[in-house]
Write a structure and sequence with these properties.
- It is a single chain.
- This protein has 345 residues and is α/β, with parallel strands linked by helices.
- The chain has two domains: 4-198, Class I glutamine amidotransferase (GATase) domain (Rossmann fold); 230-345, 3-Layer(aba) Sandwich (Rossmann fold), CATH 3.40.50.620.
- The protein has helices at residues 10-13, 25-30, 87-96, 187-198, 210-222, 236-244, 262-273, 284-291, 297-319; strands spanning 16-21, 34-39, 53-56, 82-85, 101-116, 118-119, 122-123, 134-144, 151-157, 162-167, 172-175, 249-254, 277-282.
- The strands form three sheets. A nine-stranded mixed β-sheet has the order 2-1-3-4-11-10-9-5-8, with helices on both faces. A two-stranded antiparallel sheet has the order 6-7.
- A hairpin with a 4-residue loop joins strand 10 and strand 11.
- The protein is globular.
- This is Guanine-3.
- Keywords: ATP-binding, Glutamine amidotransferase, GMP biosynthesis, Ligase, Nucleotide-binding, Purine biosynthesis.
- One of its GO terms (molecular function) is GMP synthase activity.
- Residues 214-234 are annotated as: Disordered.
């Protein structure tokens, strides 16, 4: 194993899949490949590495919306495999020719049956091992008015609309559906096909001790001062977190909005890998009854804050220790509780 004090940045070591965020990175990391998630506004000239592949993720926009996010067209000429998903497909087609895309009225938000097309006596590599009809989740407002020049359909829906397209000579793809969601059961295979078969990335390249290596690299960056920079604003939560970071104890309250077993996963990640003192509690039964049919945002926010404060207080009392709680000066509601053993009030 390389010495911790000589470890380069991950994108210098591992073939990296770059994801420009329009609103899919967890599924890719489940393939055990290294990914970088960057804002969709990131310009190619700002990159310090050449990615092995590029994914334009989905997002809740139309390319014709005022203020709609757009990517740097220079990525199209980088010579690497590209996959546009949902809005990413619309953005890809729009960048090539604005007349390729029309705003869908209404949009399509439902399951659809997608069938791979045979081209030159074979299925496209993107659909390797999933040639038959598959269920896929459509969630898009825009649609293709025509295929971009130099592209052909590699999959269609039951109404013959293009569900996936590919360039005739370059590894540039777009899918109208979302392969990263559970509603698309074979979506993980499609992502694997893109990453492994098309981008050529070894799906087991990232080592098990990646977190340890990254912690070592961060320590090297901090040099002998054993300090690292961080941004703060004037808020109470940021100030308390900055002051007490070396004595931080965290409480994760699950109010019922986390994914299945996500709280347990967060606890393992923070406790085992980052060695953060995290205590998780299930507060869903206490939070939901207090909302009833309430829809006012302020009421919901205050209910959330009160429930968070209550759960933190329960954890503190059970620990038989005294904590400092950071609260809002205006409302008294907790913004973030930061905290560890302090003098008793």
């Amino acid at each position: 194993m390389a010495r911790l004090d000589t470890i380069a940045e991950p994108q210098e070591v591992y073939p990296t899949i770059l994801v420009l965020d329009f609103g899919i990175i967890r599924r890719l990391r489940e393939l055990n490949v290294y990914c970088e998630l960057l804002p969709c506004s990131t310009r190619l000239a700002e990159l310090r590495f050449k990615p092995a592949g590029l994914i334009l993720s989905g997002g809740p926009y139309s390319v014709y919306d005022d203020g709609a996010p757009h990517s740097d067209p220079a990525y199209l000429h980088l010579g690497i495999p590209i996959l546009g998903i949902g809005y990413g497909l619309s953005e890809l087609a729009y960048r090539l020719d604005r007349t390729n895309v029309v705003a869908g009225v209404p949009g399509e938000y439902a399951l659809a049956e997608v069938t791979a097309e045979i081209t030159n006596a074979r299925f496209d590599p993107l659909f390797h091992c999933i040639e038959g009809p598959m269920k896929a989740w459509m969630s898009h407002g825009d649609r293709l008015a025509k295929l971009p020049e130099g592209f052909h359909a590699i999959a269609t829906t039951e109404n013959s609309e293009p569900a996936a397209i590919a360039h005739d000579t370059h590894p540039i793809y777009g899918v109208q559906f979302h392969p990263e969601v559970p509603h698309t059961p074979k979506g993980a295979q499609l992502l694997r096909n893109f990453v492994v078969n098309i981008c050529g990335v070894n799906a087991s390249r990232v080592p098990d001790n990646f977190v340890e290596q990254e912690n070592g690299r961060k320590r090297k960056t901090a040099k002998t001062s054993n300090r690292g920079p961080g941004t703060v604003n004037g808020g109470m939560d940021a100030k308390v977190a900055a002051r007490l970071s070396h004595r931080f104890a965290a409480v994760l309250a699950d109010f019922g909005y986390l994914r299945h077993e996500e709280r347990e996963q967060v606890e393992r990640d923070l406790n085992e890998h980052l060695r953060i003192n995290l205590r998780g509690v299930d507060a869903s039964n206490e939070f939901y009854p207090g909302l009833r049919a309430e829809t006012r945002v302020v009421f919901v926010r205050n209910a959330f804050s009160k429930s968070l404060l209550s759960e933190a207080d329960s954890v503190i009392r059970a620990s038989h220790e005294t904590y400092l709680m950071a609260t809002s000066h205006r409302t008294g509601a907790p913004r973030v509780f930061a905290c560890n053993v302090m003098d008793k009030p």
